[in-house]
Design goal:
disordered N terminus, alpha+beta, 10 strands, eight-stranded antiparallel sheet, 15 helices
Amino acid sequence: MSASTASDVRPMEEGQSGRARGGTVLARAHAYFASDHRRAIQSALGVIWLLDGGLQLQSFMYSGGFVRFLLANASGQPGWLASSIEWGAHTAQHNLAVWNTLFALTQLAIGFGLLYRPTVKLALGGSFAWVLVVWWVGEGFGMLFMNMANPLTGAPGAALLYAIVGMLVWPNGQPGGLLGVRGAKLTWAALWLVMAWLWLMGPNSSANATHDAINAAPSGMSWLSTVQDWAAEGAQGNGLVIALLLAAVSAVLGIAVAIDWRPRQFLVLAIVLNLLYWVLGQGFGGIFEGGATDPNAGLLFVLLALALYPLTPAGRPRPRGAARRASLAAGALAAIALLAGCAKADKQASMSAPAMSTSITTPSAGTGSAAPTMNMSASSSPGGVTANGVKPVPVQVLGTADWQGMKITAQVMTPVPFVVYDGTSKQVVKPGKASFHLMVMLNDADTGVPIPYATVWATITKNGKVVFDERQWPMIARYMGPHYGNDVTLPGPGTYKLSLLISPPVSARHVEYANVWLKPHQVSFTFPWKPT
């Protein structure tokens, strides 16, 4: 062979060698992380735990907003549960930086433990204890005790699903892990029957329940907000039909898999349905909006279905007689669900007010257009009206959002002194070197009537660092009306992110507000600011 020919061959051999090495690395990774179905689910669960740990390290988790988020889970809960949640939140509050770092490290340790073969059992055992804490304090047992849990938004809670998936993939060499095959299928059926029951509850089966749930879902991305707006518009006024349909589908999904009647087809249907829930009702868990602690239940339900898949028969369906019995059982349960739903709907209809079905055209919750560079000079657009010598001051709107028919408006004006009166004494708060006065207006989107008795907490960050984290005072003003306000001092010019955590109004309600604003809601706006 000539020298030229040899030189032409050598690069080819080196390229083949590189591809071989690459193939070897991939083969080794596959053999380590996905050698069989159980190991692949363990690895996927580990990656999700790592995601949770990363989310726990967000700046929001080190702010008072995280503690208030935990405390909000106590509102409306039974006394024993509310007191335990409050104790946990206040314990963490005393040294939040240390506690939250421990929370994050715990989840990261579980994730890495699942990825490292020798520590899988240890990681799963630790995860069972940790998910009990999270499901209890962090999720309030999926809000199941509050008559407001909704499968669309994540009920019965992501934490519970971590534990169930973990039990299914326990490395004991037995199909179904700690649950066994039969136990796994019965657990699956129980979950879906609970979800069917939840769909029939009054708050989830009213005319606009699904519309309101999608409108309140987190987003953080313009395309996702567009999809959610489209889905919410389609659900407007159709909440009862949607709830009855999904209750029946949920019951059939649970029973069909439990009795091995075309289980793999129904597992695929369950995956598709939960992906829809994850996008429309859970907004990917709010990961892209900020402040999320996990990806929510939709993704975990998909992983659970995948874990169950090899436990179901792959061959021909069961004999015709068994299939017929399965169909009759599922049909009977669906009929019972429909009748129960109709009874609930009749009761709810007698209590509903026409105002709840009015179409609302406002921006989606969690989204808002950024304000132009803020300028508190006299050229800013005025707000309010002159009354008895009190002049309006320059006002600029940061953004607006909608939460189940509540219009949320964040706006700023020139910093001003205000008085805090507690019923017996008053304290004057001077603006000092404040950058502006932040006002949050909560109004009925249809009537414009102010909505009182809520709690609003504002957190402002710059490049991920918290620069303001305080309560908004309930305020009255002659020229602005009732609002929630406080003076804000920013460190300098730049682009900031304002996050508002709005807790439900605590008061007696007329029936038109019976099924809205029942759990905390967060919206965010980005705005540029430059001192003048």
